[in-house]
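Here is a complete protein record:
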Amino acid sequence: MPRMRAAVVGHVEMMEFVRVEHVPSSGEIVHATETWEEAAGGGAVAAVQLSKLADSVAFFVVLGAGELGRRAKTELEGRGIVVHASFVDAPQRRGFTYLDDSGERTITTIGSKLGPRGHDDSLTATARELATLRRGSVELDALVASAKDEAEIYRQGDLSPEPRLVVTTSGALGGWAQPGGPFSAAPVPGPVVDSYGAGDCFVAGLAYGLAAGLDTSQALDFASRCGAAALTGPGVHAEAVPL
């Protein structure tokens, strides 16, 4: 297979992960069994996944100029990612994620998203960034939306020109591709640790699969396996899934 270079344009959240038996209800106190912090968010997760698949990955991101933003850059570079960061005089977005015994994640973000203002063989994006995509008016090879998350729903006509492929995911139920029809979720290759970043690993896998020349069905299968593998590790976790 020819060497492949990948690029991600996205955002970073410095995320504190807290493992608990269950997410506390209003007024309840729960005990954390494990905590850690790492550079996370959709852009960071996609870049980490692509670093496991492509020969190189460049990550274009806007970061806060303070200690948190610079720590995020250093951490991602330590994972083999070439980070092209613009530092701005604004607080670095951060967050707090509960991980419960079922592996589900419950996320609170703190602060505004710092994103870009303003072709490779495959241009893939998520419906989470519709406002940015509208300003760009670029035809996407693929757009990934969610059937569950209101912030990531895509409706026909939301973008002009329309993406060539729209994929709507629904977790363990699989999803629907237009064109293409329904597809199944991949089996999880081990015990579920948590679900953080699984959707973003799916997006990264889809972009990689399409750029590698897979047809839509094959690329969706590969993306599903990337998303499933992400479930088997803590926090920002990705695997070198074979094509």
